[in-house]
């Protein structure tokens, strides 16, 4: 097995800038895409429309769907990103 390196890059506002950006990312898991008939050469999904965790956040049950029993990875991942900007006020005396 090869090791993979993941690099996370964070952009910070420049020091002379009066604008700062805040990014809010929301992840939602939609319909189940697990093919239950793959072993017999067919295609059939169970019809589960949305992931519902069967346990509390931080437990193993949080990764299992209460409706269909599949792992969260089988559900379609939808990501929404919102960017908000804040403008800093600059006083007239430069401080």
Question: In terms of topology, how is this protein built?
Answer:
Layout (H helix, E strand, L loop, with lengths): L18 E14 L42 E13 L8
Antiparallel strand pairs: 1-2
Structure description:
By secondary structure, this protein is an all-beta fold. Helices cover 0% and strands 28% of the residues. The protein has strands at residues 19-32, 75-87. It has a two-stranded antiparallel sheet with strand order 1-2. It is elongated and about 75 Å long. It starts with 18 loop residues before the first strand and ends in an 8-residue tail after the last strand.
What keyword list fits this structure?
single chain, mainly beta, two-stranded antiparallel sheet, disordered N terminus
Estimated share of beta-strand residues: 25-35%
Helix content: under 10%
Helix/strand/pairing category: mainly beta
Provide a count of the helices.
0
Mean pLDDT: 80
| N-to-C series of helices and strands | EE
Total strand segments: 2
Please state how the strands of the largest beta sheet are arranged side by side: 1-2
Sheet with most strands: 2 strands, antiparallel
In one word, what is the shape? elongated
The end-to-end distance, rounded to whole angstroms, is 56 Å
Radius of gyration: 22 Å
Low-confidence segments, ≥5 residues, pLDDT <50?
1-9
Organism: Lithocarpus litseifolius
Subcellular location: Cytoplasm
Protein name: ZF-HD dimerization-type domain-containing protein
Pfam family, one: ZF-HD_dimer
């Amino acid at each position: 097995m090869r090791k993979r390196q993941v690099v996370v890059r964070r952009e910070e506002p420049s020091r002379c800038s009066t604008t700062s950006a805040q990014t809010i990312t929301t992840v939602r898991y939609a319909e189940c895409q697990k093919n239950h008939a793959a072993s017999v050469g067919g295609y059939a999904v169970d019809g589960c429309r949305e992931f519902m965790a069967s346990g509390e956040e931080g437990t193993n049950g949080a990764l299992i769907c209460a409706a269909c029993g599949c792992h969260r990875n089988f559900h379609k991942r939808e990501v929404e990103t919102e960017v908000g900007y804040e403008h800093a006020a600059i006083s007239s005396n430069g401080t």
